[in-house]
Amino acid sequence: MGDRDSYREHFFNHNWKTGRPPSQVTDACHWCQLRAFPTHKQYPVTIVNKTGDGATLPKDFRFITDSILTQGVRAAEASFRSGCACTDALACRYDGCECLSDMLWDEEEEEEEDEADDNDSNSDSEPEVRDKRQLNYANGNGKPNKRAKFAYHSQGAKAGLLRSRYLDSREPIYECHEGCACATSTDGDQMTDGDNACVNRVVERGRRIPLQIFRTEDRGWGVRTLVDLKKGQFVDRYLGEILTAREANHRRSVSTMARRKDVYLFALDKFSDADSLDSRLAGPPLECDGEFRAGPTRFINHSCSPNLRIFARVGDHADKHIHDLAFFTVRDISAGDELTFDYVDGIVNLAADARHHVEGMTPCLCKSANCRKFLW
């Protein structure tokens, strides 16, 4: 069975030329769900299966554009929400911005990164007046306590890419958000440096690359990029149903393969602290389950030599317990290459255990040079 045969119902019977089909059609068709994405025309997600096995995506799976808060999970009340009061976009790069208040920086590394930013900038495209304003901020002449603190490069060819110190860390990313006073606009696909747009909204503005979900020969479904990606580039978020710890454990218990279930469950535990005054952070963390409701990143496979890493991203600080899971590239990736991440990244004991065969362990099929041979 060919790829076209696998999705014959959509290709031949679902007519989008006259508008979006009825909900009963889109709810049962993965192609229609993807086509309904607001970014579909610019950054489409496609599905292909050239293996000849006739497999399609799980029928009980649905594509979503935002995570779903399930029973028992609550976002912060409006009275606890806050955002920065920055009135121009440049201020959102410095430590006077309230959104960056929890950022931790080593000053020597910070100065080296700032110098690299300057070297990457294109002087022909940087207005002289903007350069003077940035120098004033850095010298503390614009507003007090101005040190460059946000996670991204801000100028030139690297604008919008994660700084190298972040790629080698597991620190959370703090961004401006819908509760902030700074502007949200962007200049097409490019991060802008002017007064009309805040560049500290990379994850918030969403996926800006086309992806393809494809059938692999031996690892089920995978995801590849259709364009070249730069090191430090944002790819997409991991979406799913946000569950209480109790519900997550229940789903594990009823799953036919508990370890397989853990492939789709991600604990939102970046800010967990038993001593926290916030009961939501002091208690068991929430978990994100992408098995039945998720975005295209749900189908990204594991590799012991991955080209992606997941970072915790915080918008409104009142909702740290529901932080985003954001995929960024850790090296340059060519168009057509498969996207991968390490399922046990940062979990030292699991990574070490996987190097030694224990009965019942799941084999790793990534075929990388430093493959640990087993997932867990």
TrEMBL record:
Residue ranges with Acidic residues bias: 108-126
Region (Disordered): 108-147
Keywords: Chromosome, Metal-binding, Methyltransferase, S-adenosyl-L-methionine, Transferase, Zinc
Domain spans labelled Post-SET: 360-376
Keyword S-adenosyl-L-methionine appears in the UniProt entry: yes
Main location: nucleus
Subcellular location: Chromosome
Residue span(s) of domain SET: 209-344
Name of the protein in its database record: Uncharacterized protein
